[in-house]
Amino acid sequence: MRVFLTGSTGFIGSHVAHALIAAGHQVLGMTRSQPGAEALRALGIEPHHGTLEDLASLKRGAEQCDAVIHTAFDHDFAHFVDNCEKDARAIAALGEALHGSQRPLLITSGTPMGSPAPGEPADEDHFNPAHPNPRAASERAGEALLQGGLNVVVMRLSQIHDTVKQGLVTELIKHAQQTGISAYVDDGLNRWSAAHVSDTAQLYRLALETHQPGARYHATAESSIPFRLIAETLGAGLGLPVMSVSADEAMARFGWLSAFAGRDMSSNSSKTTARLGWTLAGPGLMADLQGFFDHR
Question: Which of 79, 64, 80, 148 minimizes the C-alpha distance to 112?
Fold first, then answer.
């Protein structure tokens, strides 16, 4: 297939591009810059100049292809709500370009959208449109397209990692370095989920090739890592003290990260593996964190 890939120069999107090319697909990769275009050409990827804000550029890319994989997202968490709404508009625009066809549109969300209740692991078959996490806007946009007859699939991400980046854990590392303390909230037993970026890229490929319209798939290899273990690993790797802060102190300690640090973000992926035949080959989050600290 010829696939329009947004976020093709990003952390996850670049790995997805490699997985698609290795499987024999052609990739039209969106980039906002000339250096990005040159880097894509060097990898055998046709560049398409566009941005999330330029909805016409998104439509032009989608119109040229047999399928769309949307991994681009503005990760400026200081404007998280606005960026989630921007993502919803981008998804709607991509859907307009695919109207009247069954060409697949794979959009990206987060596993917390599948949590039935606070503290319960996310499930692939669950989605609450009124979920308080602003990222629910992406799934609401996808659901509207699905109800309009389009072939939409939702890819939900855990903390996606290698030895260079580790999702929100990368932000926790920066925060610990800035404050001199690696902290967790209360007993730190809230759980996060994670998956290696190479396994995640293969999941996107499998979902493109063998999905069911309307399905939601979880990029989760490790379903329930205690947040305290993450904080202790960061403390050891950075040579910093580790301490607990109360939920009341979380905002003062973590800033915008407080919306995540004390929250359970565990996730199941048993339905994903059964439905797509997804197999895991990459290392776990703790191993990649150790690799990150070993190469500092």
Answer: 80
Tokens of 288: 């990649």
Tokens 């202790």 belong to which residue? 232
CB-based contact 168:133 (threshold 8 Å): no
Beta bridge partners of 159: 194
Could you list the beta-strand ranges (E) of the chain. 2-6, 26-31, 46-49, 67-70, 105-110, 152-157, 159-161, 182-185, 191-196, 216-219, 222-226, 242-245
Nearest to 223 by CA among 139, 115, 132, 77: 115
User: pLDDT of 101-157, one tens digit each?
Assistant: 999 999 999 999 999 998 899 999 999 888 889 999 999 999 999 999 999 999 999
Please give the Cα distance from 257 to 47 (Å, whole number). 34
At 240-250, the pLDDT tens digits run 999 999 999 99
d(CA 39, CA 143): 34
Contact 226, 190 (CB under 8 A): yes
Task: State pTM to two decimals.
Answer: 0.96
